[in-house]
Write a structure and sequence with these properties.
The complex is a heterodimer of chains A (about 200) and B (about 375). Chain A has about 200 residues and is of the alpha/beta class. Chain A contains 8 helices and 8 strands. In chain B, helix 5 packs across helix 7.
């Protein structure tokens, strides 16, 4: 399991109720269910991935986060997880609002466009950056709204969303992000993980 | 047909009050079982059949000598694995494969015909519930069925919220749509317009409204397929001829196919049963039973739901299946949902659709492991 999921799992207490939005093949769901007795279900848009989840015995609903989150009542989950998908929605702001409506807390991770390798790629090669977390070409990437850790940090603050914890992830190392080290973390982390509430 | 020795029958002694207000008692429920009930009695699956189905789910139907209606899904090592599970299926009341229906005789030994009480999905389910007592099963492992079978699944879990661990409604709806009522009415009109129908007393008059019933089946059969499926299978291909004949014989293969479907159906199905069962489907509105809030139908159950729809099903489209998912999510129920890609229309659930069969198998087997 990738390190990002381990960090997310560490943010969630045992016995909670969780919705994993864009759960893919259900790796995180299975881990949380097996190790932390989490009552968890997934929402996934890909039919193939939904089938993979069913084959693992996981509860998953085929659906589109931009349309199908509205069926869940307010605060019906302790945590709603969205891993590296926010930038792929037509309207990330509306999805974020929905995550925070459905979940008491939300865990959102974003691939950091401010990462130094991304900046160097664009600066020296002059072409759209391709990295481990941003593997696609400009013409086939699902990402519509790339942002940096700094962008996201300022964005949630401007929306009066409470940040409980924000972590910068670089390979295996995770570290706390705060106002004072934001510039440095924005340069050296390729992934940002945010535990937020509204 | 009702006295065939191949038909197992349970006589329900307990009076059953029907939705129409009448009460029936000492009535037969014809059923069949596959696999064996284990000692813990925790491996039973109750399957509900659709409009023209019967209790003979798989293997060779001893009455028609044709394959059972769900042979692709049910059997040894299949999605519903009869090596593992004990499958029970019964003919709905109103039906014509041995359960109490319009071709039965009233206490005065006169065939009921249209004097048989109008039955509902709720009545069907309440009648079938007696099978649990018969087999001494406290809790089923699963209930499943497609189309009208799915309606019975929804009604069953609403009526008996703690009697099953898992619930699998397939290609169904919680409330029969205007379009579906319209198609059913077309079928009923075809039957009753046949002069051989004789106000439902055709047996007494030694006639059979076969032509009307065949037309009803032909019209319904079109609704079970998809435009794309029909186009790919038949296109404009001609039936055993080089060119058009400039007449009204079956020039096109699709015409010949529909005529065949109509004619074989007449051999195995009772016209009055067709009227009664389509009526039951039309009357089905679980949302209305709970005053407009479908979630209330499921509020008392802890069962695990898995809902399946098909992309090309325009009779019970994905959105109607999703409405059930939404109702369940709004009360935090344990519900999974998948829409299967298929060109085979509403009939997909009866056919060899590998993604559907594997999803069904995986859900059942994984849920049983967690038991």
């Amino acid at each position: 399991m990738k390190n990002e999921f381990q960090v997310i799992a560490d943010l969630i207490e045992r016995d909670k109720k969780v919705l994993d939005v864009g759960c893919a093949d259900g790796t995180l769901i299975k881990f949380l269910k097996d190790n932390k007795n989490i009552n968890i279900r997934g929402l996934e848009i890909s039919k193939e991935k939904v089938q993979e989840c069913i084959a693992k015995g996981l509860t998953v609903i085929e659906g589109n986060a931009e349309k199908d989150l509205k069926q869940f009542p307010d605060k019906s989950f302790d945590y709603v997880v969205l891993s590296q998908t926010l930038q792929a929605f037509l309207s990330p702001e509306l999805v974020l609002d929905e995550l925070l409506r459905v979940g008491k807390k939300a865990i959102v991770t974003i691939p950091n466009f401010g990462y130094w390798k991304v900046r160097f790629h664009l600066l020296f090669k002059g072409t759209m950056p391709i990295t481990k977390t941003l593997p696609d070409e400009w013409y086939n990437t699902p990402n519509l709204h790339m942002c940096t850790i700094k962008d996201f940090f300022h964005f949630v603050k401007s929306k009066d969303i409470t940040i409980f914890k924000s972590l910068a992830l670089n390979n295996l190392n995770s570290s706390i992000i705060n106002e004072s080290n934001l510039g440095v973390k924005n340069l050296f982390a390729d992934l940002g993980i945010f535990l937020i509430e509204k | 047909m009702n006295t065939e020795k191949n038909i197992k029958t349970l006589i329900v002694k307990k009076p059953l009050k029907l939705d129409c207000g009448k009460t029936i008692k000492d009535f037969p429920i014809a059923y069949e079982t596959y696999g064996s009930l284990n000692s813990k009695k925790d491996n039973a699956i109750l399957v509900f059949h659709a409009l023209t189905g019967d209790q003979f789910v798989t293997g060779i139907n001893p009455v028609t000598n044709k394959e059972g209606w769900w042979s692709y899904a049910v059997g040894p090592d299949k999605a519903i694995d009869t090596n593992k599970y004990f499958v029970i299926c019964s003919n709905v009341i109103g039906g014509c494969m041995g359960s109490y229906g319009p071709s039965h005789k009233d206490p005065d030994q006169k065939i009921y015909g249209t004097n048989f009480p109008v039955i509902t999905i709720n009545d069907m389910v309440n009648a079938q519930y007696n099978l649990l007592d018969h087999f001494n099963i406290d809790k089923l492992f699963s209930i499943t069925g497609g189309s009208m079978g799915g309606m019975q699944v929804l009604q069953f879990i609403s009526n008996f919220p703690d009697k099953t661990k898992t619930v699998i409604p397939i290609a169904t709806t919680s409330s029969h749509s205007a379009q579906n009522i319209a198609f059913n009415e077309l079928g009923r009109q075809a039957i009753t317009a046949d002069s051989n129908w004789k106000d439902g007393n055709y047996t007494l008059n030694e006639t059979n409204p076969g032509k009307g019933l065949a037309v009803a089946r032909m019209a319904a059969h079109i609704t079970y397929l998809s435009k794309k499926g029909l186009q790919e299978k038949f296109g404009r291909k001609l039936q055993e001829r080089e060119d058009l004949k400039f007449g009204f014989d079956a020039d096109f293969q699709i015409e010949s196919y529909l005529r065949y479907q109509g004619s074989v159906f007449v051999d195995r199905f009772d016209a009055n049963s067709y009227l009664y069962i389509t009526r039951a489907m039309d009357y089905f509105d679980l949302t209305k039973q709970f005053k407009g809030n479908l979630s209330e139908a499921f509020i008392n159950t802890k069962a695990k739901f898995f809902i399946i729809s098909f992309t090309s099903d325009w009779l019970y489209p994905t959105q109607e299946n999703k409405d059930i998912v939404i109702a369940l999510n709004s009360i935090g129920a344990d519900v999974g949902f998948v829409e299967i890609e298929s060109d085979k229309g509403h009939d997909s659930f009866l056919l060899d659709v590998p993604d559907f069969l594997s999803a069904l198998k995986n859900f059942l087997d994984k849920s049983y492991e967690e038991n």
